[in-house]
Amino acid sequence: MKTSMNRRAWLKSGALLAGGLTLLPSGLTALAASPPVSALGEQLTDEAALLGSPPQIKARLLANENPFGPSEKVKQAMMEALSTSYQYPAMYARELVQKIATFEGVTPEHILVDAGSSPLLQAAAIHFSRKGGAIITGAPSYRDLPDSAKDLSTTIVEVPLTTEYKLDLEAMEKKVDATTALMYLCNPNNPTGTVLDAAKLKAFTERVSQKVPVFIDEAYIDYLPDPQSVTMIEAVKKGQNVIVARTFSKLYGFAGMRVGYIVAQPETIKILSKYAVGGMSISAPAIRGALVAYQDQAFMKEALQKTLASRQFLYDTLKLEGYSYIPSSANFVMFPLKMDGKRFVEEMAQRGVGIRNWKFNNQDWCRVSIGRMDEMQAFAAAFKQLS
Ligand SMILES: Cc1ncc(COP(=O)(O)O)c(C=O)c1O
Fold first, then answer.
1. Quick one: fold of 72-293?
2. 253-267: per-residue pLDDT in tens?
Protein backbone atom coordinates (compact mmCIF):
# COMPACT_ATOMS: atom_id res chain seq x y z
CA MET A 1 0.00 0.00 0.00
CA LYS A 2 1.16 3.52 -0.78
CA THR A 3 0.94 4.64 2.83
CA SER A 4 2.96 1.81 4.32
CA MET A 5 5.55 2.09 1.54
CA ASN A 6 6.00 5.73 2.36
CA ARG A 7 6.28 4.95 6.01
CA ARG A 8 8.92 2.32 5.45
CA ALA A 9 10.91 4.62 3.19
CA TRP A 10 10.73 7.26 5.87
CA LEU A 11 11.88 4.99 8.64
CA LYS A 12 14.76 3.87 6.46
CA SER A 13 15.86 7.41 5.75
CA GLY A 14 15.92 8.19 9.47
CA ALA A 15 13.75 11.24 8.92
CA LEU A 16 11.24 9.97 11.44
CA LEU A 17 13.71 9.92 14.29
CA ALA A 18 15.46 13.11 13.25
CA GLY A 19 12.13 14.91 13.17
CA GLY A 20 11.10 13.71 16.61
CA LEU A 21 8.05 11.88 15.30
CA THR A 22 8.67 9.10 17.78
CA LEU A 23 6.41 11.14 20.04
CA LEU A 24 3.44 10.57 17.79
CA PRO A 25 0.93 7.90 18.73
CA SER A 26 1.13 4.90 16.40
CA GLY A 27 -2.03 5.68 14.40
CA LEU A 28 -0.74 9.11 13.61
CA THR A 29 2.66 7.99 12.40
CA ALA A 30 0.82 6.03 9.71
CA LEU A 31 -1.20 9.08 8.83
CA ALA A 32 1.81 11.33 8.91
CA ALA A 33 3.55 9.03 6.48
CA SER A 34 1.25 10.01 3.66
CA PRO A 35 2.63 13.26 2.29
CA PRO A 36 0.32 16.26 2.70
CA VAL A 37 -0.72 17.00 -0.82
CA SER A 38 -4.22 18.36 -1.00
CA ALA A 39 -5.03 22.04 -0.98
CA LEU A 40 -7.38 23.45 1.63
CA GLY A 41 -11.04 23.88 0.99
CA GLU A 42 -13.19 26.72 2.28
CA GLN A 43 -12.71 27.11 6.01
CA LEU A 44 -14.82 28.90 8.61
CA THR A 45 -13.21 31.61 10.73
CA ASP A 46 -13.37 31.23 14.53
CA GLU A 47 -15.77 34.16 14.54
CA ALA A 48 -18.14 32.46 12.10
CA ALA A 49 -17.90 29.20 14.07
CA LEU A 50 -18.73 31.04 17.30
CA LEU A 51 -21.67 32.83 15.75
CA GLY A 52 -22.98 29.54 14.41
CA SER A 53 -22.59 27.64 17.69
CA PRO A 54 -25.64 26.78 19.82
CA PRO A 55 -26.53 29.25 22.59
CA GLN A 56 -26.67 26.54 25.28
CA ILE A 57 -23.07 25.51 24.98
CA LYS A 58 -21.57 23.52 27.90
CA ALA A 59 -18.08 23.31 26.51
CA ARG A 60 -16.78 26.21 24.46
CA LEU A 61 -13.85 24.54 22.73
CA LEU A 62 -13.87 26.24 19.34
CA ALA A 63 -11.95 29.52 19.48
CA ASN A 64 -8.70 28.80 21.40
CA GLU A 65 -9.66 31.04 24.31
CA ASN A 66 -8.26 30.76 27.83
CA PRO A 67 -11.08 30.21 30.34
CA PHE A 68 -8.60 30.52 33.25
CA GLY A 69 -8.20 34.25 32.74
CA PRO A 70 -8.14 37.10 33.31
CA SER A 71 -6.80 37.09 36.86
CA GLU A 72 -8.57 38.66 39.87
CA LYS A 73 -5.93 41.43 39.95
CA VAL A 74 -6.63 42.23 36.32
CA LYS A 75 -10.40 42.28 36.83
CA GLN A 76 -9.89 44.68 39.75
CA ALA A 77 -7.81 47.03 37.56
CA MET A 78 -10.47 46.92 34.84
CA MET A 79 -13.23 47.73 37.35
CA GLU A 80 -11.22 50.65 38.71
CA ALA A 81 -10.75 51.96 35.18
CA LEU A 82 -14.51 52.14 34.62
CA SER A 83 -15.02 55.27 36.72
CA THR A 84 -12.59 57.27 34.55
CA SER A 85 -13.66 55.66 31.29
CA TYR A 86 -14.99 58.99 30.05
CA GLN A 87 -11.30 59.76 29.34
CA TYR A 88 -9.54 58.75 26.11
CA PRO A 89 -7.03 55.94 26.70
CA ALA A 90 -3.97 57.49 24.97
CA MET A 91 -1.65 57.74 27.97
CA TYR A 92 -2.39 54.18 29.11
CA ALA A 93 -1.69 52.91 25.60
CA ARG A 94 1.65 54.74 25.71
CA GLU A 95 2.39 53.18 29.10
CA LEU A 96 1.64 49.70 27.74
CA VAL A 97 3.93 50.26 24.75
CA GLN A 98 6.67 51.43 27.12
CA LYS A 99 6.20 48.38 29.34
CA ILE A 100 6.43 45.93 26.44
CA ALA A 101 9.43 47.80 24.98
CA THR A 102 11.29 47.65 28.30
CA PHE A 103 10.63 43.91 28.71
CA GLU A 104 11.64 43.07 25.13
CA GLY A 105 14.63 45.43 24.99
CA VAL A 106 13.37 47.47 22.03
CA THR A 107 12.29 51.12 21.72
CA PRO A 108 8.61 52.21 21.85
CA GLU A 109 9.01 53.07 18.15
CA HIS A 110 9.36 49.34 17.46
CA ILE A 111 5.83 48.65 18.80
CA LEU A 112 2.27 49.20 17.62
CA VAL A 113 -0.68 48.20 19.83
CA ASP A 114 -4.29 47.73 18.72
CA ALA A 115 -7.57 46.08 19.71
CA GLY A 116 -6.24 42.53 19.40
CA SER A 117 -3.73 41.37 16.81
CA SER A 118 -6.43 40.96 14.12
CA PRO A 119 -6.44 44.67 13.11
CA LEU A 120 -2.64 44.51 12.82
CA LEU A 121 -2.77 41.40 10.63
CA GLN A 122 -5.31 43.31 8.57
CA ALA A 123 -3.01 46.36 8.36
CA ALA A 124 -0.18 44.12 7.11
CA ALA A 125 -2.53 42.50 4.58
CA ILE A 126 -3.48 45.92 3.21
CA HIS A 127 0.06 47.30 3.10
CA PHE A 128 1.66 44.24 1.52
CA SER A 129 -1.15 43.97 -1.03
CA ARG A 130 -0.73 47.53 -2.30
CA LYS A 131 1.73 46.60 -5.02
CA GLY A 132 0.14 43.25 -5.89
CA GLY A 133 2.49 40.29 -5.74
CA ALA A 134 2.22 37.21 -3.58
CA ILE A 135 2.10 36.16 0.06
CA ILE A 136 3.61 32.81 1.01
CA THR A 137 1.94 30.87 3.83
CA GLY A 138 1.58 27.33 5.16
CA ALA A 139 -1.47 25.12 4.61
CA PRO A 140 -3.24 24.59 6.83
CA SER A 141 -2.31 27.64 8.86
CA TYR A 142 -4.01 30.76 10.24
CA ARG A 143 -5.91 32.31 7.37
CA ASP A 144 -6.74 35.79 8.58
CA LEU A 145 -3.90 37.75 6.95
CA PRO A 146 -3.73 35.73 3.70
CA ASP A 147 -7.53 35.80 3.30
CA SER A 148 -7.62 39.59 3.75
CA ALA A 149 -4.82 39.96 1.22
CA LYS A 150 -6.59 37.64 -1.20
CA ASP A 151 -9.64 39.91 -1.07
CA LEU A 152 -7.28 42.67 -2.25
CA SER A 153 -6.22 40.57 -5.26
CA THR A 154 -2.91 39.38 -3.83
CA THR A 155 -1.84 35.89 -4.86
CA ILE A 156 -1.66 33.46 -1.96
CA VAL A 157 0.99 30.77 -2.28
CA GLU A 158 -0.03 27.93 0.05
CA VAL A 159 2.74 25.52 0.96
CA PRO A 160 1.62 22.16 2.47
CA LEU A 161 2.95 21.27 5.91
CA THR A 162 5.65 18.66 6.40
CA THR A 163 4.79 15.08 7.29
CA GLU A 164 5.12 16.17 10.93
CA TYR A 165 2.40 18.81 10.35
CA LYS A 166 4.90 21.66 10.78
CA LEU A 167 5.42 24.61 8.45
CA ASP A 168 7.74 23.45 5.69
CA LEU A 169 10.41 26.14 5.89
CA GLU A 170 12.53 24.65 3.14
CA ALA A 171 9.63 24.48 0.68
CA MET A 172 8.41 27.95 1.69
CA GLU A 173 11.85 29.47 1.11
CA LYS A 174 11.98 27.90 -2.37
CA LYS A 175 8.77 29.76 -3.25
CA VAL A 176 10.37 33.18 -2.70
CA ASP A 177 10.77 35.06 -5.98
CA ALA A 178 10.58 38.56 -7.40
CA THR A 179 6.79 38.63 -6.93
CA THR A 180 6.86 37.82 -3.20
CA ALA A 181 5.47 40.64 -1.07
CA LEU A 182 5.49 38.84 2.30
CA MET A 183 6.33 35.55 4.02
CA TYR A 184 3.71 34.75 6.70
CA LEU A 185 4.46 32.16 9.38
CA CYS A 186 2.29 31.19 12.33
CA ASN A 187 4.42 29.70 15.15
CA PRO A 188 3.10 27.70 16.97
CA ASN A 189 0.89 26.93 14.00
CA ASN A 190 -2.88 27.20 14.19
CA PRO A 191 -4.63 24.74 13.64
CA THR A 192 -2.00 21.99 14.04
CA GLY A 193 -0.39 23.23 17.28
CA THR A 194 3.09 22.35 16.00
CA VAL A 195 6.12 24.51 16.72
CA LEU A 196 9.20 25.11 14.58
CA ASP A 197 12.71 24.29 15.70
CA ALA A 198 14.02 27.61 17.07
CA ALA A 199 17.49 27.36 15.51
CA LYS A 200 16.06 26.48 12.08
CA LEU A 201 13.54 29.30 12.26
CA LYS A 202 16.25 31.75 13.28
CA ALA A 203 18.47 30.80 10.34
CA PHE A 204 15.48 30.85 7.95
CA THR A 205 14.37 34.29 9.15
CA GLU A 206 17.86 35.71 8.85
CA ARG A 207 18.21 34.49 5.24
CA VAL A 208 14.67 35.13 3.98
CA SER A 209 14.24 38.57 5.56
CA GLN A 210 17.11 39.79 3.40
CA LYS A 211 14.90 39.16 0.38
CA VAL A 212 11.33 39.72 1.61
CA PRO A 213 9.67 40.84 4.86
CA VAL A 214 8.89 37.98 7.23
CA PHE A 215 5.74 38.18 9.38
CA ILE A 216 5.70 35.80 12.35
CA ASP A 217 2.40 35.39 14.16
CA GLU A 218 3.28 34.35 17.72
CA ALA A 219 -0.28 34.32 19.12
CA TYR A 220 0.36 31.04 20.98
CA ILE A 221 4.01 31.49 21.96
CA ASP A 222 3.14 32.01 25.64
CA TYR A 223 2.15 28.32 25.82
CA LEU A 224 5.75 27.22 25.18
CA PRO A 225 8.00 26.38 28.14
CA ASP A 226 10.44 29.19 27.22
CA PRO A 227 8.91 31.74 24.82
CA GLN A 228 11.94 34.02 25.02
CA SER A 229 14.13 31.37 23.37
CA VAL A 230 11.70 30.98 20.44
CA THR A 231 10.44 34.50 19.74
CA MET A 232 11.65 36.21 16.61
CA ILE A 233 11.59 39.58 18.39
CA GLU A 234 15.31 38.76 18.62
CA ALA A 235 15.48 39.12 14.81
CA VAL A 236 13.79 42.53 15.00
CA LYS A 237 16.38 43.57 17.59
CA LYS A 238 19.13 42.58 15.14
CA GLY A 239 17.63 44.94 12.55
CA GLN A 240 16.08 42.27 10.33
CA ASN A 241 13.01 42.96 8.18
CA VAL A 242 10.72 41.00 10.48
CA ILE A 243 7.29 41.70 11.99
CA VAL A 244 6.22 39.77 15.08
CA ALA A 245 2.56 39.73 16.15
CA ARG A 246 1.50 39.01 19.73
CA THR A 247 -1.86 38.95 21.44
CA PHE A 248 -3.32 39.11 24.95
CA SER A 249 -6.25 36.97 23.69
CA LYS A 250 -4.67 33.61 24.46
CA LEU A 251 -2.72 32.85 27.67
CA TYR A 252 -3.62 36.22 29.23
CA GLY A 253 -7.33 35.43 28.76
CA PHE A 254 -8.21 38.76 27.10
CA ALA A 255 -10.01 37.59 23.94
CA GLY A 256 -13.09 39.62 24.84
CA MET A 257 -11.10 42.68 25.95
CA ARG A 258 -9.11 43.01 22.69
CA VAL A 259 -5.42 43.85 23.15
CA GLY A 260 -2.62 42.91 20.75
CA TYR A 261 0.60 44.33 19.34
CA ILE A 262 3.31 43.96 16.74
CA VAL A 263 7.05 44.44 17.09
CA ALA A 264 8.93 45.52 13.94
CA GLN A 265 11.46 48.03 12.58
CA PRO A 266 10.37 51.63 13.35
CA GLU A 267 9.91 52.41 9.63
CA THR A 268 7.62 49.37 9.25
CA ILE A 269 5.64 50.41 12.33
CA LYS A 270 5.21 53.87 10.84
CA ILE A 271 3.87 52.46 7.58
CA LEU A 272 1.56 49.88 9.19
CA SER A 273 0.17 52.44 11.64
CA LYS A 274 -1.38 54.19 8.61
CA TYR A 275 -3.72 51.21 8.23
CA ALA A 276 -4.49 50.60 11.91
CA VAL A 277 -6.15 52.76 14.55
CA GLY A 278 -3.58 51.87 17.21
CA GLY A 279 -3.85 52.48 20.97
CA MET A 280 -6.91 54.70 20.63
CA SER A 281 -8.94 51.67 19.50
CA ILE A 282 -8.43 49.84 22.81
CA SER A 283 -10.76 50.68 25.68
CA ALA A 284 -9.17 52.13 28.82
CA PRO A 285 -10.32 49.18 31.00
CA ALA A 286 -8.72 46.75 28.55
CA ILE A 287 -5.40 48.63 28.52
CA ARG A 288 -5.39 49.10 32.30
CA GLY A 289 -6.02 45.37 32.64
CA ALA A 290 -3.25 44.58 30.14
CA LEU A 291 -0.80 46.72 32.13
CA VAL A 292 -1.42 44.50 35.16
CA ALA A 293 -1.55 41.22 33.21
CA TYR A 294 1.60 41.68 31.11
CA GLN A 295 4.26 39.17 32.17
CA ASP A 296 2.43 38.32 35.41
CA GLN A 297 4.46 35.14 35.82
CA ALA A 298 2.42 33.69 38.70
CA PHE A 299 -0.84 33.95 36.75
CA MET A 300 0.73 32.72 33.51
CA LYS A 301 2.26 29.72 35.24
CA GLU A 302 -1.02 28.71 36.86
CA ALA A 303 -3.08 29.14 33.67
CA LEU A 304 -0.48 27.14 31.76
CA GLN A 305 -0.53 24.30 34.31
CA LYS A 306 -4.32 24.07 34.17
CA THR A 307 -4.19 24.10 30.37
CA LEU A 308 -1.59 21.32 30.34
CA ALA A 309 -3.70 19.19 32.74
CA SER A 310 -6.78 19.62 30.52
CA ARG A 311 -4.69 18.89 27.41
CA GLN A 312 -3.37 15.67 28.98
CA PHE A 313 -6.95 14.65 29.84
CA LEU A 314 -7.87 15.17 26.18
CA TYR A 315 -4.89 13.11 24.99
CA ASP A 316 -5.89 10.29 27.38
CA THR A 317 -9.51 10.42 26.20
CA LEU A 318 -8.50 10.23 22.56
CA LYS A 319 -6.08 7.35 23.20
CA LEU A 320 -8.72 5.45 25.15
CA GLU A 321 -11.14 5.75 22.24
CA GLY A 322 -8.51 4.54 19.78
CA TYR A 323 -7.78 7.92 18.17
CA SER A 324 -4.43 9.50 17.36
CA TYR A 325 -3.61 13.22 17.56
CA ILE A 326 -0.94 15.74 16.69
CA PRO A 327 1.04 16.50 19.88
CA SER A 328 0.38 20.18 20.53
CA SER A 329 2.51 23.08 21.74
CA ALA A 330 -0.53 25.30 22.21
CA ASN A 331 -4.01 25.43 23.78
CA PHE A 332 -5.69 23.31 21.12
CA VAL A 333 -5.26 19.81 19.70
CA MET A 334 -5.93 18.50 16.22
CA PHE A 335 -6.90 14.89 15.61
CA PRO A 336 -8.06 12.86 12.58
CA LEU A 337 -11.74 11.94 12.61
CA LYS A 338 -13.32 8.66 11.62
CA MET A 339 -16.50 10.29 10.34
CA ASP A 340 -17.55 13.28 8.27
CA GLY A 341 -16.22 16.45 9.93
CA LYS A 342 -19.30 18.57 9.42
CA ARG A 343 -21.57 15.89 10.83
CA PHE A 344 -19.24 15.41 13.79
CA VAL A 345 -19.37 19.14 14.61
CA GLU A 346 -23.18 19.09 14.39
CA GLU A 347 -23.51 15.97 16.56
CA MET A 348 -21.15 17.43 19.19
CA ALA A 349 -23.01 20.77 19.11
CA GLN A 350 -26.28 18.94 19.79
CA ARG A 351 -24.57 17.58 22.91
CA GLY A 352 -23.53 21.10 23.98
CA VAL A 353 -19.91 20.87 22.84
CA GLY A 354 -18.45 23.42 20.42
CA ILE A 355 -15.42 22.29 18.40
CA ARG A 356 -14.12 22.94 14.84
CA ASN A 357 -13.51 20.70 11.85
CA TRP A 358 -10.93 20.93 9.06
CA LYS A 359 -10.38 19.01 5.89
CA PHE A 360 -6.89 18.48 4.50
CA ASN A 361 -4.76 15.61 3.15
CA ASN A 362 -8.08 14.01 2.10
CA GLN A 363 -8.92 13.57 5.76
CA ASP A 364 -11.47 15.08 8.15
CA TRP A 365 -9.90 16.60 11.26
CA CYS A 366 -11.21 18.05 14.49
CA ARG A 367 -9.57 20.90 16.42
CA VAL A 368 -10.44 20.96 20.11
CA SER A 369 -9.50 24.05 22.11
CA ILE A 370 -8.34 23.36 25.64
CA GLY A 371 -10.87 24.44 28.25
CA ARG A 372 -11.62 23.91 31.92
CA MET A 373 -11.63 20.29 33.14
CA ASP A 374 -15.47 20.23 33.27
CA GLU A 375 -15.53 21.28 29.60
CA MET A 376 -13.04 18.56 28.68
CA GLN A 377 -15.20 16.05 30.56
CA ALA A 378 -18.26 17.24 28.62
CA PHE A 379 -16.23 16.74 25.42
CA ALA A 380 -15.21 13.22 26.54
CA ALA A 381 -18.79 12.21 27.41
CA ALA A 382 -20.16 13.42 24.06
CA PHE A 383 -17.20 12.00 22.12
CA LYS A 384 -17.67 8.55 23.64
CA GLN A 385 -21.20 8.47 22.23
CA LEU A 386 -19.90 9.14 18.72
CA SER A 387 -16.49 7.48 18.51
C1 LIG B 1 -2.66 32.57 15.00
C2 LIG B 1 -3.60 33.64 15.39
N3 LIG B 1 -3.25 34.91 15.17
C4 LIG B 1 -4.05 35.93 15.50
C5 LIG B 1 -5.28 35.70 16.08
C6 LIG B 1 -6.16 36.88 16.35
O7 LIG B 1 -6.28 37.09 17.69
P8 LIG B 1 -6.73 38.47 18.32
O9 LIG B 1 -7.27 39.37 17.27
O10 LIG B 1 -7.74 38.10 19.33
O11 LIG B 1 -5.47 39.03 18.93
C12 LIG B 1 -5.69 34.39 16.35
C13 LIG B 1 -6.99 34.11 16.97
O14 LIG B 1 -7.42 33.02 17.19
C15 LIG B 1 -4.82 33.33 15.99
O16 LIG B 1 -5.16 32.06 16.17
1. Aspartate Aminotransferase; domain 2 (3.40.640)
2. 999 999 999 999 999
